[in-house]
Amino acid sequence: MNGDGGTDTASGDGTRPDATREDATGPDTTPVGATEPEAAGGDTEPDATPDGDMELYDLRVVVDRIEGRSVCGMRVGDDFVLERSAHLRIPDGKHFCVYALAAVLPFLAAKQRDLASGDWLAQDSLFCCPDPEERLVMRVERTGRRRMNSADLT
To answer: Is 126 in contact with 137 (CB distance < 8 Å)?
Structure first.
């Protein structure tokens, strides 16, 4: 559970999406470590082999709510995804405020990994933009789990 009574999972039902991916279009049963076309561009990039030495979550950061006035032009539902450890993708024709991004960025590497159940970051998924006039709240969702080779990332 997070602070607003929700859960820290993409599905919202209290389960973790260990080997499948779920997004706004519904569940995708792509197995962990399988290749799939990129959302933007259609190219395929091979993931690590199934015998990779680590697993990371893919993440989606979405504007959950704006409690003030939107000065940066963002709207509820605007988002970006972080895949394959470090591939940040913003939908075509959209933008994401650099100050909101700077506020959530330090936490993303930890959210990509398994955390102890008592860790506050495992329980909380809401982050705020630093602009006090805007009060933009972002939600970090785990959208899938991916097996990777750490040697490919360094």
So the answer is: yes
